[in-house]
Automatic annotation (TrEMBL):
It comes from Salarias fasciatus (Jewelled blenny). Cadherins are calcium-dependent cell adhesion proteins. GO terms for molecular function: beta-catenin binding; cadherin binding; calcium ion binding. This is Cadherin 7. GO terms for cellular component: adherens junction; catenin complex. The keyword Iron does not apply. GO terms for biological process: adherens junction organization; calcium-dependent cell-cell adhesion via plasma membrane cell adhesion molecules; cell migration; cell morphogenesis; cell-cell adhesion mediated by cadherin; cell-cell junction assembly; homophilic cell adhesion via plasma membrane adhesion molecules; morphogenesis of an epithelium. Pfam families: CADH_Y-type_LIR, Cadherin. SMART domains: CA.
Length: 753
């Protein structure tokens, strides 16, 4: 007889036999009820082998999941018990192995066989809303049955066995406004036309119950917060049919006159509105715009107010929703109108000029006290107070003009000069006599008319060179003239040689009729040794009425020129009676200049002019071969702080640094020495009263501490005393002109013949 398995499960056929080929085991599933609460071990089932004759020679052995810890087997009878309470939701089944062995030899009498212990479910878990609590929204005024949100509950019990996991939904709190579908958990509106402005939020309690809602089922709940979202179902409405505001007539243009708001119970974009002025008794006087933050209508002043002209204004204003929902047009018009009255209050205004700008003209030869025009102003207030006039002297610092305090007549107070100032921009004050704080301002633009009071002169200082080999009729200079006057028809100048030299044999003048003239030679054969310089007086006459003229002297130097007409040397010939050549004289001149700067005291040397080393770009502060840092550290020994090295003061220096105020350079680290040196130079320039009051170049470079060859600079050569006379340099031609200007003092004593 095959092995049998016996289970306490109440099935139609409690003895289920499974025949295996080549084995005498008969096995099936065991079922154990979860959450058993009895005091004794729970009987699971029984195993029996055909080999077991009941004589105690066969022993049953159990292994696998939970063997010995949860499940035990009676080795003699094969009875299986569960010693612990089981939870299907923790583990639904256990896989075990059973074997029958010989009690004495422990050898198997049957092959090992596997069976399953399945935990049978009971309804021990209530439904749970995993996603709760819920937040949802639905538009206000929604139709009946509009879906709001769907809720879902889960039950950990076995959905394949019984009704333990079959859930139905119901609403515990939230009626009659909302309902829930029992099977799906879909929440819908149960009333139509719910108004957000009346109530905007509802809190629902939804229950889920297993066992299909039957008695004894377990349940769980969740909350659903439903918010009604806004729709534009409320039109704007002004709280008053008319409004009154008062403003001062001095209110600036673009100021806010008043704020007006139409109430709208909606929110957000549904409460946005536009305002407009429908009608008014002063078109263009005001405008209205919407304040986007508050949705107020701001009435803006576009034109100045004048109490004396108009003291009140009436406006008709409309407010309209921007975003109108066509579904609610049946509720009425989404706009409203109201009346606004603006009253203007009088203020004491300053006098007003009849013309903000008065343009006046006066001749520059006008006598002192000449009347040139009149300004007028009036008090715009109804009191019409008396007015006194005055000139803002900040616009007439030299007091060229006066104004009569009562009449406003402007007259000259000083002689005028158009060439110095052709236009005077005067600010005129009009002051109320009763209230001097009320001041009106006007502008009088006085243009000075030109008269011919300036004679023409040479346009520049001409340098005229005449080659000894010049031919008769050769143009040696073209001259032009300038005149400070500005005649209406432009300048016209006439040129001629002055009467004393009109018929001279050497030069002639040709008027080119274009405000220029040419100087020409009459002969050839000019020689420097005979006469090195000619002075030619030129008469220039303008076209004014009356005409003015001036005599200007043109200096003509006779020069030795090369074949191309380039001047090599000009003026008087330098005689070399000692037999020295020109080159030798230049060498002597260079020695004199050098000697003048080489014999100064050591303390007067400017350390910036010394050359430390040649052919060496230097290695910065780390290079101690090309430059000795010890020299820089001892600058305070060789430098007099009260002497300016970069300018020569015309006045003595009264400020001296105290010797204790300068830190010794030797006490400073290498990277600070240069900075301190530059800062000291900067302080010298800032506090020295002999410093020039104009922009000047201050040199802060440091190049070394001295040289055995002394300074090669000639910048201070002019300050040395010398008996040398360098006047002859002016006779050496244009190449030595700079030296002649620096060292020479030639007056050019030649005369015209």
């Amino acid at each position: 007889e095959p092995l049998r398995y016996q289970s306490p499960r109440s099935d139609p056929d409690p003895w289920e036999v499974l025949h295996r080929q080549k084995r005498s085991w008969v096995w099936n599933q065991f079922f154990v009820l979860e959450e058993y609460t009895g005091n004794e071990p729970l009987y699971v089932g029984k195993l029996h082998s055909d080999v077991d004759k009941g004589d105690g020679k066969v022993k049953y052995v159990l292994s696998g999941e939970g063997a010995t810890s949860i499940f035990t087997i009676d080795e003699n009878t094969g009875d299986i018990h569960a010693t612990k309470r089981l939870d299907r939701e923790a583990q639904a089944y256990y896989t075990l192995q059973a074997q029958a062995v010989d009690r004495i030899t422990n050898l198997p009498v049957e092959p090992r066989s596997e069976f399953v212990v399945k935990v049978q479910d009971i309804n021990d878990n209530e439904p749970k809303f995993i996603d709760g609590p819920y937040l949802a929204g639905v538009p206000e005024m929604s139709p009946l049955g509009t879906m709001v949100v769907q809720v879902a509950a889960t039950d950990a019990d076995d959905p394949t066995y019984g009704n333990s996991a079959r859930v139905v939904y119901s609403i515990i709190h939230g009626q009659p406004y909302f309902s829930v579908e029992p099977k799906t958990g879909v929440i819908r509106t149960a009333l139509s036309n719910m108004d957000r402005e009346t109530r905007d939020q509802y809190v629902l309690v939804i229950q889920a119950k297993d066992m299909v809602g039957q008695m004894g089922g377990l349940s769980g709940t969740t909350s659903v917060t439903v918010t009604l979202t806004d729709v534009n179902d409320n039109p704007p409405r002004f709280t008053h049919k008319s409004y009154q505001y008062t403003v001062l007539e001095s209110l600036p243009v673009q100021s806010v006159v008043a704020r007006i708001k139409a109430a709208d119970a909606d929110i957000g974009s549904n409460a946005e509105m536009d305002y407009r002025i429908m009608d008014g008794d002063a078109p263009g006087q005001f405008n209205i715009t919407t304040d986007e933050n508050t949705q107020e209508g701001m009435i803006i002043l576009l034109k100045p107010l004048d109490f004396e002209t108009k003291s009140s204004f009436s406006l008709r204003i409309e407010a309209t929703n921007r975003n109108i929902d066509s579904n609610f047009l049946s509720l009425g018009s989404f706009s409203d109108t109201t009346s606004v009255k603006v009253t203007v209050e009088d203020v004491n205004e300053p006098p007003v000029f009849s013309k903000a700008l008065s343009e006046l003209v006066v001749s520059e030869d006008a006598k002192v006290g000449t009347s040139i025009g009149r300004v007028s102003a009036h008090d715009p207030d109804t009191s019409n107070n008396a007015i006194r006039f005055s000139i803002d002297r900040n616009t007439d610092l030299e007091r060229f003009f006066n104004v009569d305090a009562l009449s406003g007549v402007i007259s000259t107070a000083k002689p005028l000069d158009r060439e110095a100032n052709s236009v005077h921009n005067l600010t005129i004050f009009a002051i109320e006599s009763q209230d001097p704080t009320q001041i009106g301002r006007g502008v009088a633009l006085v243009t000075v008319q030109d008269i011919n009071d300036n004679a023409p002169v040479f346009a520049i200082d001409y340098e005229t060179l005449l080659c000894e080999n010049a031919m008769p009729g050769q143009v040696i200079q073209t001259i032009s003239a300038v005149d400070k006057d500005e005649p209406l028809r432009g300048h016209r100048f006439y040129f001629a040689l002055a009467a004393p030299v009109a018929g001279n044999p050497n030069f002639t003048l040709r008027d080119n009729k274009d405000n220029t003239a040419s100087i020409l030679t009459k002969r050839d054969g000019f020689r420097r040794r005979q006469q090195p310089v000619y002075r030619l007086p030129v008469l220039i006459v303008d076209s004014g009425s009356p005409a003015l003229s001036s005599t200007n002297t043109l200096l003509v130097r006779v020069c030795d020129c090369d074949s191309d007409g380039v001047a090599l040397s000009c003026g008087a010939v330098a005689y070399t009676a000692t037999g020295l050549s020109t080159g030798a004289l230049l060498a002597i001149l260079g020695c004199i200049i050098t000697d003048g700067s080489a014999h100064r005291d050591d303390e007067e040397r400017d350390i910036r002019e010394n050359i430390v080393r040649y052919d060496d770009e230097g290695g910065g502060e780390e290079d101690t071969e090309a430059f000795d840092m010890v020299t820089l550290r001892n600058l305070n020994v060789i430098r007099d702080p009260s002497v300016r090295r970069d300018v020569t003061p015309d006045t003595p220096t009264f400020f001296h640094y105290p010797s204790a105020s300068r830190p010794p350079y030797k006490s400073l680290p290498d990277n600070v020495v240069f900075r301190e040196f530059i800062w000291d130079r900067l302080k010298d320039a800032d506090v020295d009263p002999s410093a020039p009051p104009y922009d000047s170049l201050q040199t802060y470079a440091f190049e070394g501490s001295g040289s055995v060859a002394e300074s090669l600079s000639s910048l201070e050569s002019l300050s040395t005393d010398s008996d040398q006379n360098y006047d002859y340099l002016s006779n050496w031609g244009p190449r030595f002109k700079k030296l002649a200007d620096l060292y020479g003092n030639s007056d050019g004593t030649g005369v015209f013949s």
